[in-house]
Each structure stands twice: as structure tokens, then as C-alpha cells.
Amino acid sequence: MVQGMKKGSMMAGAEQHGRVEDGSHEAGQSALTPQEVTACCQQLVARGEGDQAVSLAIQIAQGTQDVALILAAGLFLVRFTPRHEVVIAVFRKALLLMPEAEPAMASMRGEVKIFLAGALMVAGEREEAMALFMDVARTLPEHRVLVGEHLSMALLEAGLADQAEQVLLAWLADGPPSVSLYNNMGCALGRLNRSRDALAYYRRGMELSSRHEAVSFGYAIALLKAGEYEEGFARYVRRVPRIPSLNCWFYQDLPRLTNDVPLEGRHLLFYQEQGLGDTIQFIRFLPEIVRRAGRVTLAVLPSLARLLRESYPMVQVCLITELLDHPERVAEYDFSCPIPDLPYLCHLRHVADIPAFSPYLEVPVRRREHFARLVEQAVAQGGRAGGHSPAGRRLRVGLVWAGDSRSSAQDVAADRRRSSSFAEMMEALGPVEADLFSLQYGDRRGELEPVEGQGAVVHDLMGHVQDMADTAALMESLDLVISVDTAPLHLAGALGREVWLVSRWDACWRWGDEGDRTPWYPTMHIFRAQELSLAPVLKDVAVSLRRRIAEG
Fold this sequence. Notes:
The chain has helices at residues 8-17, 34-46, 50-63, 67-80, 84-96, 106-122, 126-139, 144-157, 161-173, 179-191, 195-208, 213-225, 229-236, 249-252, 276-282, 286-292, 302-311, 320-324, 342-345, 365-385, 409-418, 422-429, 468-475, 487-495, 535-551; strands spanning 267-271, 295-300, 316-319, 335-338, 395-400, 434-438, 458-460, 480-484, 499-503, 524-528. Helix content is 51%, strand content 9%. Strand 8 (480-484), helix 24 (487-495) and strand 9 (499-503) form a beta-alpha-beta unit. The strands form 2 sheets. A 6-stranded parallel sheet has the order 7-6-5-8-9-10, with helices on both faces. A 4-stranded parallel sheet has the order 3-2-1-4. Helix 22 crosses helix 25 (535-551). The model is unreliable at 16-29 and 385-389 (pLDDT under 50). It has 25 helices and 10 strands. The protein starts with 7 loop residues before the first helix and ends with a helix. By secondary structure, it is an alpha/beta fold.
């Protein structure tokens, strides 16, 4: 997790010096304070209304001449929208309203320039961004550390980890130490797949601030990526869970389960946290907990509920939204815990301790047969449409080219690094003698279109798919799944299907720094990108696919 400047100093300066009134406030807006703007937007995000929060922040920034309000809106937008052009416009407006001639404003103007430069860098306006960063570093020496923190953060979010490393080496060699500089160096080295090198910088950051959450979490991820599971998971479970609202009763009012608690006779509540893939990866440890505990309840998202009910009939599965509305149920449970904590609870210490694999998700026979018929019909219709009837059964390949849509700026940046597009994937694969099936979900399914010259259409049966249980049934009729790093990839691995991962260059911790195999899913083969674009590694996938087809 990269980190930059805290907003406190800039906001304080804006509130003291930055109110430039012109009487243009709307009636309701003039009574707002910067703290109220931030609180209101954050409450909307916590309720799952991120789009409304972003719209409110934009409306406030557009409708006021009050610098403090503009900056409050801008600082929220930096975190919660990938619309860099909006962030850039907000900070440019703030600078125009801050008089250059006033000495007391110089420091705050420098901080605003740093935020503006960061947004410009991520938006691809690198020349202007670098000019702003260097101008602040030269004219305001007191902001040199802040420039280094934000410049390195912007380079990392733009996918330029090698350049971020060079900047950080220069800043750390010539200036006072900073927790954020050490943290960002650890992040840069982790993204460069040099996790063991990253550990030393995270440790230095923790020496400066032992309770710094971002550094502790980054250190945990680097340990896990390096295969140091015992210390890595022990530190990983210290994180604040990534759930829509930390005010939910099962987080606030129930103790969090640790691995030293006797489980006999306890009622444990495990809840969905982070992505669907995390739940699919770690749910394999659930049976060990069930054997030791009295009762277990899983609270998950609708897309996983049916799959988990059928795979783990010994536990109660409910929707996490159902629990949120019933705080009186707190008395039913003894402990709660995020599902990704399961490896820690099961004392996973080394890669070799990962349990021997066997498929751990169930697909009922009737559903498997239903999707098998749909696949056969699609192949038959595709053969007629193409004017040919291939001799024998061709390889059936499922394709996923993009992850799910995200909302926060940081998550969107990560998704851009991991995702391809339908056009890019099909251009790389080229004509192949295989039957191709889309497994793409969400908004990116709309990219699907007829492919000229492929020798076969890309069949889309996802209209028959309601949730992950259906996706699993569809996968059971395919021979191979090719996917970027997203939930269906984990689903294919958990089912024991042959699956090829098209990994971004800064591979996720669970795939390690190198290698084409993973102990988590023995049927997975990893293709690692060596640059920001996935196009070259997709060509490697295409070569392997033709070889796989030739082998039969």
C-alpha cells in the first residue's frame, strides 16, 4: 500500500487563510464546513453509495469559491475516483483562488501543487507533473520529504515502479528519513518482484513508527510474497478489514477470533472481506475449523452464497446484507473473523504446510449436466454458423480478460494493471482451432463482439449464469480456463480445472516473485508479464495454446 502526505496541514492552512468568498454559494452549501464535507462523503461510501459521494464532492468543488471546501472535496476525490481530469481541475481551481503574493500561503500552495502533480502523473501528464514536483522541492525545502513521498507514490500508481525506486534511492540518500518513503520503497521493490529486498525497508519504516498500519500491512504482504507465511499471516491479520463499513455490529461488538482461542462449543461468524477470489482461495481451510468448533456461520455476498451452501453443507451460509440489519443477533455468536484470516487460524507457517490439494468446491450433477448441454448446443451451432464441422472434439477454452469494476482510485489503478480487454486478448490469440467461451462477468462483458477470421465464434453463455455456482458448472464442461488475476481464476483453481493465469508484471503476493507454478492451485500455470502492457505475455499464451491444441 503506497502512502503519501497526510491532509491535516493543508486543510488547517486552508481554513485559516483560504476562504475567498464571492457570495456565489448555494444556500445549503455555505453552511458546510470542510470536516462536514469529508464526513458526509465518507458516510456515503460506507453505505455503498460511492458514486453519490463522488458526485457530491464534485458538486461542492464546482459550486464554491471557498478554498477550504474545494480542498476537502479534492482530497476526497484523490482517494475515491479514478477520474483524474476531475481531480486535476479541482486542484487547479484551488490554486487560482490562493493569492501568490501572500507569503503565508506559500507553504499551502506548495502542498496543493504536490497533489496536483500527483494527479497529473497518474493521468499521464508526466512532464508537467515532474516540473511541479521539482519546483516545490526547489522553492520550498521544507516540503522536500513530502515531494519525495508523493512523487514516488504517483510513479507507483502510474505503474512505474522502477522509476519510483530511483527517486526513493535519491531521496533516502539525501535527506531525513520518513516512514512513507521507506514504505513506498518497500512497495516499489515488492512490485518489482524483489520481496526479500523490500523487507528491510519496511522494517526501517516500522522502526520509525511501530504502529503504522500501512507499513505493517505492506510488510505482511512482502513476507507472504517471499513465502514467509508464519510471520506474514501473523502480521496480515492485524489489518483493519476492508469491508463497506467498520460500524457493522459483527466487527464492532464481537471479539475477533485468534488462533489461540479454544473453539469447542463456540459459534463462529466468518464474514466476506476483500474480493471474491480471496474467499474462494481461503475457504479450503474451513473444514479444519468446523472439526474443532461447535457451530460456524458464513456471511458472504450473493454471488458466492449458493456455491458455498452446496460445498459446505455442515455450516450455515447467509448473506452479509442480512446480518447488517439485525444487530440483535450479536448474542448468537462468540467470535467473528474475516474469511482471509483462515490460514492464520489453521497455523499455516510454510508453503509446504498448505494442505494437499483436492477440488474443494461442489457442483451438483443436475447443474453440471444442464451447462454441459448448453455447451454442446453452442458448439454445434457455432460449427454450422462457421460453415464447417470439425472432425472430433476440439479443445474448449474459457476466457476472462478483465477484473471486476472498482471504485476507489487506488483499486482502479490496480485493476488497470491486471486487466486486458477482449480486443487485446483476441488479437494476441489469433485464429485457433478451439471452441472459445467467454467467462467474463460484470460490465466488461459488454466488450464481447464477433471476431473476424477466428475460425470460431466466442460463445457467450454468461446470460445463463446467475452466480459463481453457475460459473463453476460451466467451467466443468471446459478443458482450459485462461484468465487475468480475478475471481474466476480462483474458482477454476479450486475446482481443479486446468487454468492459465495471465499475471500482471507486479504479481499479487499469492503467486510469489517468480516461477510458473503455485502451491495454492496445482493445476495452474502462470504466465508473467514483464511490462505494463499484457499484450506481449498474451502472445506467449497464444503460442502455448497452439501447442496445447496440437498435443490434443
